[in-house]
Specification:
The chain is of the alpha/beta class and about 525 residues long. About 35% of the residues lie in helices and about 20% in strands. It contains 17 helices and 18 strands.
Length: about 525
């Protein structure tokens, strides 16, 4: 079965529930250049990805080739998703793909998507219809040459039709022909003072809107240097602005997330609550090390230890997972006192059924080490399972405090590029919650730079016909970071950034996710008031 699914206008949250369900289940996904790159992160790990969109300097699949791929994959009997920007049938050439599947006898289902023709103006406060100003709307491809006065069928062209209609006109894929489109509208009877709005990268990072009228809009858009994909809205409604005045301190702020899936989801919820939009750009995956065998040996002699300390939620998750795998009776831990680095680890430990005996007032590994040095008695020994990239400062403080401990680096955290890294230059702030996250992010940046830089994100909104590829491989990716704010959780993360040559603009006083996101909100609240 082949599913033709509309991905929506760009914001991944605007895909239909049904479409997302099939994306999560599919065996093969065939996609163009999308605004919704995050949707690709939803597929199964073993899902086969086939890219058929345009890419600068490379051959791209023409429509007949795409049709052949769909038929070939459909014949294999797997669940195949053809993911298309916007809606498959709104200038998306979905009809041609369906025709090919029908001819080949391949079963298919079309899952509608939210077209950018309606959604993008709407999120910018422009309703395509409104009582008293517009009772209808018309969607036109701006890709067609504007100097052609007759349609392919020999009838009136789109511009003659517009002249005879009332309502809102929405042009897709017309940014490069904006001047010609405005000229043709005037030639066919439109008033030069008719309101016009041009929206670039609608519902995505970098969204911008320029307003004017038929006479002035081309110059204003050129001055603003708007980029494709863009939507042109013409009519009285283009002058309306139905946007909420204040959705929160992070309204119109785009936040890049670096971390494990669990941490990213926690941050996403908090950012949404403050009116912001978040994008996962680097996934930090936890990989166990061979040192976990040392931990198993330590647990066999757990009576030698008086304290067990956790510096991360990852350690807690792995520790209790291994306890179960090794069939170790948890009652053997009854004599231990448990210490954690902060509120997040305290709560994670509580989920496992244990209450922390010690939590430092300041949620840092340094504070934890100093606290342990004060509360541990002579002759007591500390078991410290943690990450490979754990803080050396913590060990120095334990040594200076005379604490007897056994440190076991049981896991490492490795960064993996996520599709939304292509949004990098349009992000306002990036969050880092650990030193390993800094390292993982920089590794991804280095890899991207070797591949000639982060591709300028192009969108296949409702068609891939008219997007100009502005990819510039000459720039240095690290230069992009000069225009992005950096938020760091804790002094260790801040120092890791400094060591890499970056300055943390936002560091919360309390080292947990809630305070990190709150600090970002406070930062932008102050910035907007200035």
């Amino acid at each position: 079965m082949v599913y033709l699914i509309g991905a929506g206008p760009g914001d991944p949250g605007l895909i239909t529930v049904k479409g997302l369900e099939f994306i999560k289940q599919c065996d093969t996904i065939i996609y163009d250049r999308l605004g919704t790159y995050q949707l690709l992160e939803m597929v199964k790990p073993d899902c086969r990805r086939i890219y058929v969109g345009k890419q600068a300097g490379s051959h791209y699949k023409k429509q007949p080739e795409i049709n052949e791929i769909l038929v070939e994959e459909g014949r294999k009997g797997n669940m195949v998703v053809r993911l298309k920007g916007g809606d498959p049938f709104v200038f998306g050439r979905g009809g041609e793909e369906v025709t090919a599947l029908l001819k080949a006898g391949i079963p298919f289902q079309v899952i509608p998507g939210i077209t950018s023709a309606v959604a993008v103006p709407e999120v910018c406060g422009i309703p395509v219809t409104h009582r008293g100003t517009s009772r209808s709307f018309h969607v036109i491809t701006g890709h067609k040459r504007a100097d052609i006065h007759r349609s392919d069928e020999g009838g009136l062209d789109d511009y003659d039709y517009i002249r005879n209609q009332e309502g809102t006109s929405v042009f897709l894929m017309g940014l490069n022909r904006l001047s010609q489109i405005m000229e043709r509208l005037v030639q066919t009877g439109a008033e030069e003072n008719t309101p016009v709005a041009v929206i670039s990268k609608g519902t995505m990072p970098g969204q911008r809107i320029v307003r004017g009228d038929i006479q002035t809009i081309a110059d204003k858009v050129n001055e603003a240097k708007l980029e494709s994909p863009a939507i042109i809205v013409v009519g009285e409604n283009a002058a309306l602005d139905f946007t909420a005045p204040n959705r929160g301190p992070l309204q119109n702020v785009h936040v890049g997330l670096v971390g494990t899936p669990k941490l990213r989801e926690k941050m996403r919820v908090a950012i949404d609550a403050l009116g912001g939009q978040s994008y996962s750009i680097v996934d930090m995956s936890v990989e166990q090390t061979e040192e976990k065998n040392r931990l198993r040996m330590a647990l066999e002699h757990i009576e030698d230890y008086s304290w067990l300390a956790f510096t991360s939620q990852n350690t807690i998750t792995l520790f209790f997972k291994w306890l179960r795998e090794w069939n170790i009776d948890v009652r053997k831990l009854a004599h231990l006192k448990l210490a954690v680095v902060g509120a997040g680890t305290r709560d994670a430990l509580k989920v496992e059924g244990y209450i922390a005996d010690y939590v430092p007032d300041e949620y840092t590994t340094s504070a934890l080490a100093m606290g342990l040095a004060n509360v541990m008695n002579d002759g007591e020994k500390l078991l410290l399972p943690r990450a490979v990239q754990g803080s050396e400062t913590m060990l120095d403080i334990l040594d200076q405090g005379g604490v007897v401990y056994e440190e076991i680096p049981v896991y490492d955290v490795v960064g993996r590029r996520m599709e939304s890294i292509q949004y990098l230059k349009d992000l306002d702030v990036i969050t880092f919650v650990s030193a390993s996250g800094v390292r993982g992010f920089l590794d991804v940046l280095d890899a991207e730079e070797k591949n000639c830089g982060v591709a300028h994100m192009l969108n296949d909104i409702d068609s891939c016909g008219d997007h100009t590829d502005n990819t510039d491989g000459s720039f240095k990716i690290h230069d992009i970071m000069k225009n992005i704010r950096i938020a760091a959780l804790g002094n260790v993360t801040e120092k890791a950034l400094e060591k890499a040559g970056y300055h943390a603009d936002i560091v919360p006083e309390v080292g947990d996710i809630e305070h990190l996101i709150s600090a970002i909100g406070d930062y932008y609240f102050r910035e907007k008031r200035q």
